[in-house]
Design goal:
By secondary structure, this protein is of the alpha+beta class. Helices cover 24% and strands 24% of the residues. The chain contains 16 helices and 27 strands. The longest helix is centred in the last third of the chain and has 21 residues. It is globular, with a radius of gyration of 26 Å. It starts with 19 loop residues before the first helix and ends with a helix. The site of dioxothiomolybdenum(VI) ion has 11 residues, from loops.
Length: 706
């Protein structure tokens, strides 16, 4: 196995995005900006206005007579589609058929019940308001806390992990422990609001379909669309050259894509469909509301003797999804007894889906708050407590970590942040009406790699083309693959052109699970080595090309022998106004260990973005469903608050020097989702340090601290 030198060449350099100029000048075309061969018609979705029931009548006459309208599609005239099938399937759920307008049932508020296509967007939108839908509503269940008695155990949690685990005997350890915490935390329903909403432009050429859409994972969306249309996936070309954020919401195929394809077929014209911001609150998944009970037990000298993490979260009777909320608890601390449990409560809402660091983000918000509670009871520095309870052996799998530098992150982060100057006890420091507090949290996230292929071609003039169906969702894929190809082939960066996001290119696992960079970079690296080896065998001036690949983690020995995670530590300083309860994050610092960093600038941006989302989840984000209807009462960005610039000043991040040759040939691990893991807890712990108020309901609202 060839290992590149970590110090030579452009890999790791803080290179500006190679697609940056295209993006800021508007030359990078996102899905809705793509131009099919003829001007497209425009489709607008009409969503259901009951939580559960049936459509009993649709009066489309006024809409059909409205100016410019070409088609009003409902379950009555939509093409026949496969049944959605059981809530739980064995295979890849992102590739299953997702029928839309397939029958008269309404499964949640906002589910599409009609699709209006007109010459212009404005005409389609005006006509959509004229469609009269009559429902027969049925009794529905909304509200997690009200329906907890209906909780059940899913077969697995996300990524196929076990639902429940137990190492040692937690109850016995907890019963006899001299110091304990037993608290319950509540994390609100959150929504991934990518700047680019979900969009599709569909065009048929005979029986061949081309769709420009916003997808994180081309192969999944393509298979799902083909299954929904009932056609061979070879007949479908899917293109996502630029994607304006994903966060899990674009892992699969969404309603607008299937609807645009159906309408384009029916009308023999290209059709464009873009979801509105409000529609995406109902149709693209969300982080389910969760209740988490955390119990901790320790000896008086601060050694954890037991950790228990039990979770109850929202799911849907239509499709089962359980975030891996307590999964980080299985590997973070070296306690002899660890118990984790996940339970679901089916509500008549769209099911939960992966949202950046699924489960890990809300799970660490609870666990790392509870650890802080324990440290307070013990009278211990929470940095020292975490160092004391570190482990180099995965406590559940009983295997060593491929690399684990949590202690280094805590120590180096503490030094750079000035942790030694922290207020040692709550309400100790104030500046006028502001109470000042410091908080810390650990970060952990699995390191994954997915099966990936990439094509590399070196022309006679030594210009290089790299192709894979991998996507760049704002993360920097174009840039890091340019760096990897340039360094591996020994050519200038300017000689390399990376092409992504087209189902005609070799298949990647896409952007998800933080596996994108390591997987695609490894495949490009492999292809470049093959090309280089062939070039070394001859002096001919000709074209050289090769397809390279990397195996997925399930087929990789290093994943059998080692437990693979990334680690980090978050430090936060807050001020809380004693009169108004207003909480302001003053500064945050993240220290991370995530293997070899492929681009210091884009990786740091990833971490900072995640940390800011941590601020958001601790202080702002909460979608509220009206129990009478299932309607989200704050379902737009005016009412659903996220951290804005003024909430996110002074956020910095750095990486510990790490090179994990057990992870892959490049030594790189996933960075994307690590940044949000634990970030919110550092803030919540800082709020406690400032005020003495322990918030266990997130987001922390002003009334909780006043
Ligand atoms: Mo991520 S939630 O796997 O896009």
């Amino acid at each position: 196995m060839t290992t590149l030198s970590p110090t030579k060449g452009p890999i790791g350099e803080p290179l500006d995005r190679v697609d940056g100029r295209l993006k800021v000048t508007g030359a990078a075309r996102y899905a809705a900006e793509r131009k099919p061969s003829a001007p497209p018609l425009h489709g607008v979705i009409v969503g259901a206005t009951v939580a559960k029931g049936r459509v009993t009548a649709i009066d489309a006459a006024a809409a059909e007579a409205a100016p410019g309208v070409r088609l009003v599609m409902t379950h009555r005239n939509a093409p026949k589609q496969p049944e959605f099938g059981p809530a739980r399937i064995a295979g890849n759920r992102f590739q299953r058929a997702r029928p839309v307008l397939g029958d008269d049932r309404v499964r949640h508020w906002g589910e599409p019940v009609a699709f209006v296509v007109a010459d212009t967007f404005e005409q389609a939108r005006a006509a959509a308001d004229l469609v009269k839908v009559t429902y027969e509503a049925e009794p529905h269940a909304i509200g997690l806390e009200e329906h907890l008695r209906d909780a059940y155990a899913p077969q697995t949690i996300n990524v196929g992990m076990p639902t429940d685990t137990e190492v040692g005997d937690f109850e016995a350890a907890f019963a006899v422990a001299p110091v304990k915490v037993d608290e319950t935390y509540h994390v609100a329903q959150q929504h991934h609001m990518a700047i680019e909403p979900h969009a599709a432009v569909a065009e048929w050429d005979g029986d061949e379909l081309t769709v420009f859409t916003a997808s994180q994972t081309i192969a999944n969306a393509r298979a799902s669309l083909a299954a929904t249309l009932g056609i061979d996936k070879e007949k479908v070309r899917l293109v996502s050259s630029y994607v304006g954020g994903g966060f899990g919401g674009k892992l699969g195929m969404r309603a607008e894509t299937a609807l645009a394809a159906f309408a384009a077929k029916a009308l023999s014209r290209p059709v464009k469909a873009v979801q509105t911001r409000r529609q995406t609150f109902y149709t693209v998944g969300h982080r389910p509301e969760a209740i988490q009970r955390v119990r901790l037990s320790a000896s008086r000298d601060g050694r954890l003797t037991g950790v228990s993490h039990e979770v109850w979260m929202q799911s849907s009777p239509v499709e089962e999804f359980a975030e891996q909320t307590a999964s980080s608890t299985r590997a973070l601390y070296g306690a002899p007894a660890i118990l984790t449990r996940h339970r679901l409560v089916n509500l008549d809402m769209q099911g939960g889906e992966p949202v950046r660091a699924p489960g890990e983000a809300p799970g660490l918000l609870a666990l790392e708050s509870a650890i802080d509670e324990l440290c307070h009871k013990l009278g211990m520095d929470p940095v020292e407590f975490r160092i004391l309870n570190d482990t180099q052996i995965d406590p559940e799998k009983k295997k060593p970590f491929s690399s684990r530098h949590l202690v280094e992150c805590l120590r180096e982060g503490a030094a750079r942040f000035g942790w030694a100057d922290r207020p040692k006890s709550p309400r100790e420091r104030r500046e006028g009406a502001k109470l000042i507090g410091y908080g810390v949290s650990a970060a952990i996230r699995p390191n994954y790699i997915g099966p990936c292929a990439a094509y590399v071609r070196v022309a006679e003039d030594r210009s290089v083309i790299v192709r894979t169906d991998m996507t760049d969702i704002g993360t920097g894929t174009y840039t890091i693959l340019t760096q990897v190809a340039a360094e591996t082939l020994g050519v200038p960066l300017a000689a390399v052109k990376v092409e992504l996001g087209d189902s005609r290119f070799p298949v990647s696992p896409g952007s998800g699970g933080s596996w994108g960079a390591a997987s695609s970079a490894s495949a490009v690296h492999d292809a470049c080595l093959k090309v280089k080896a062939e070039m070394a065998r001859t002096d001919e001036a000709r074209v050289f090309e090769a397809t390279g690949s990397v195996k997925g983690m399930r087929d990789t020995q290093a994943y059998k022998d080692f437990s693979q995670y990334c680690f980090g530590a978050h430090f936060a300083e807050v001020e809380v106004d004693e009169d108004t309860g207003e909480i302001r994050m003053r500064r945050m610092l993240g220290a991370f260990a995530a293997g070899r960093i492929l681009n210091a600038k884009t990786a740091r941006s990833q971490m900072i973005g995640g940390m800011i989302w941590g601020v958001s989840s601790a202080l702002f984000e909460e979608a509220v469903n009206d129990p009478r209807t299932g309607h989200i009462v704050n379902g737009d960005l005016g009412e659903y608050h996220v951290a804005a610039h003024a909430d996110a000043a002074n956020v910095d991040a750095f990486f510990i020097d790490e090179h994990d040759e057990r992870a892959n040939a490049l030594g790189a691990k996933g960075v994307g989702e690590l940044g949000i893991c634990g970030a919110g807890a550092a803030l919540a712990n800082a709020v406690f340090n400032a005020t003495g108020v322990r918030a266990r309901r997130f987001p922390i609202t002003l009334d909780q601290v006043i």
